[in-house]
Amino acid sequence: MDIMDRLNSSPRLMLVSDLDHTMVDHHDPENSSLLRFNALWEAYYRQDSLLVFSTGRSPTLYKQLRKEKPMITPDIAIMSVGTEITYGRSMVPDDGWVQFLNQKWDKNIVIEETSKFPELKPQAETEQRPHKVSFYVQKDKAKSVTQALSKVLEERGLNVKIIYSGGIDLDVLPNGAGKGQALAYLLKKFETEGKPPLNTLACGDSGNDAELFSIPGVYGVMVSNAQEELLQWHSENAKDNPKILHASERCASGIIEAIGHFKLGQNLSPRDVSDSRQENLSPYLEIVNFALLLEKWRRAEVENSELFIAGIKATVFPSAIIIHPSGSAHNAREYLNTFRKVYGDKKGKQYRIWVDDVVATQLAPGIWLVKFDKWELCGEERKACASTSIMSSRDSDWFNLVHVHQTWLEDSAKGEWFL
């Protein structure tokens, strides 16, 4: 539970979000809403809140999605429809959750009985997990199959839950599993540790997300593109619940909308602010804004002027050093002269920059050590480096750069890298 150790007190917000068609909009090739959320979270929430991804995807498909989309790293991942809980970048499993799910569960019996239903078409082997057996079934057959299968498995002494979602996916789980139960388990765990979240926001679009909205005290948002099955559940169970919002915005933009609707904190993403020099009062926001400024410069979305370059240099100490991922060291102010060479080199291209997992530690009054990953996406090519920066705000209203050290991330395609 290292993620909790980094928080001095209860998380200000625990945001629990489904991925496909909720956090991630597969109909948005620019990933604009996801990138808006990323900038908002890293600038204003990473330091004192928890991000939880809750997905029906197995770890295999979850990792695949992370390679396909510009996603930031969650503090906790709930996968395989709430049957697996892992922590942090290393995805350390929660052994207590595994032991809990083992009660009245026998995967072999489930496989034996489901094989007797020709309507059930097994999903890929990667989707068959220790506490989840998954199938495809036609919508018109789902109800009758679910009822018959529930009865058979109960007669075999198993206590199971069958979830139908997306108009085709049928998952057989231990009765204690599911996205809602996994969330309830986490909330109880944090309360036991004396750090219950001050607010929790659940976000979803399909039937297997309904459980998230059923946890007492939790705020919920159904994104505007929510599926019929979730809207029907809401109509039958929670239409008068003021804590559940049907957003007017799609996917991650709907999540941002809900943060503002429920007054849970800042909901103006740095990507939606034209002046990147506004209210740079934290090292988190400063890092996010600099990445966005570099993106705009290379996309020719800001004016090419000497005044711009002079302004950037003014935020850098004269003796500041930048160590490039290649290992070469440069005086930071001299290196920034190369800004001129890359102006507009990504104009008209699908070029985006985002930062991930920003962690700032105050070393002394006005002196900060900031660690983060910086990612660049240009078409299909992705590359990233781990950055360690020392920043100072002792003699200025703004943060000034003292030192930067960058190294390639292992899973990143190495290549040309500006800053």
Automatic annotation (TrEMBL):
The keyword Magnesium applies. It holds the Pfam family S6PP_C. Signal peptide: none annotated. GO terms for biological process: sucrose biosynthetic process. Its cofactor is Mg(2+). InterPro entries: HAD-like_sf, HAD-SF_hydro_IIB, HAD_sf, NTF2-like_dom_sf, SPP-like_dom, SPP_C, Sucrose_Phosphatase, Sucrose_phosphatase_pln/cyn. Transmembrane segments: none annotated. Residues 12-263 form the Sucrose phosphatase-like domain. It comes from the Eukaryota. It is an enzyme of class 3 (hydrolase). One of its GO terms (molecular function) is magnesium ion binding. Residues 285-410 form the Sucrose-phosphatase C-terminal domain. Homodimer. Catalyzes the final step of sucrose synthesis. NCBIfam families: HAD-SF-IIB, SPP-subfamily, SPP_plant-cyano. Belongs to the sucrose phosphatase family. This is Sucrose-phosphatase. It comes from Phaseolus angularis (Azuki bean). The lineage of its organism: Eukaryota, Viridiplantae, Streptophyta, Embryophyta, Tracheophyta.
